[in-house]
Here is the input.
Amino acid sequence: MIVGIIGAGTMGSGIAQAFAQCEGFQVRLCDITEELAARGKGRIEAQLMKRVQKGKMEAAAAQTILDRIATGTKDICTDCDLIVEAAFESMDVKQQTFQELMAIARPDCIFASNTSSLSITQIGAKLDRPLVGMHFFNPAPVMKLVEVIAGINTPRALVDRVKEIAVSLGKTPVEVNEAAGFVVNRILIPMINEAVGVYAEGVASAEDIDTAMKLGANHPIGPLALGDMIGLDVVLAIMEVLQAETGDPKYRPHPLLRKMVRGGLLGVKSGQGFFTYTK
Ligand code: CAA
Here is the structure.
């Protein structure tokens, strides 16, 4: 199966790796320039080399995975069976991307979006084929879940097909009827927002909030470190979608979250969030 991935950032390159590490998939990793796409592949290579150095993977196996990934702009997606869009989280960008893909892709190519909270129905509104949500979790090569999201016009057969593809990647799909934040982000992101509030009120230090949730709730990583990993700008954007779509004040983004994003404190990607990160 030939799979196009649109967007070679953290999620796009992680999704490309998730496909490429399974036999039977060829990947076209795309971005707006060839250089950005190549940089995404470089990220995958660095990740695989870490595993080789740890003795968890043979160098030849890492090379096989890399050989399955071609890079370029979306023009290399003409022969794809499936395209997963993982572009910037903006309705306009996603709608425009799919409009352009319609002119490039085969008529029978499946269109899927990795949006983390935007409406599948709205992204797919003006397309010549139905759209489905295929939502991976960061880090995509490791996390087992894929949310398969049906918009109002997504046929049953397409949901089933994408669930099968997720299973062939070694993932566990859950079926979701489109709703703001789907399942995971509707629960997870307000929890992170609440942790920001606990921190802002001085209830405990950032370290102790994270230790409390790791040891008291068995989370693999604390909520503030997780917010830093996801990107505090992404956390804020998802809270805003939840608030706008539901009109429910319980989804109010915490003012400290907003202030940190305005100040460029975005977490791991900017080097500073609730914690400090060095390259
Ligand atoms: N890419 C590929 N592989 C990665 C990776 C990455 N970015 N980060 C870690 N890994 C791999 C490591 O290579 C390692 O593999 P091996 O065991 O084969 O060596 C394995 O993951 C475990 O990594 P580490 O030992 O370095 O660290 P860890 O045990 O602390 O696990 C973690 C790292 C899996 C990320 C863990 O901290 C975790 O589960 N964190 C929570 C992640 C989470 O909640 N993600 C969801 C975010 S929400 C989201 O993504 C949705 C959205 O729309 C915003």
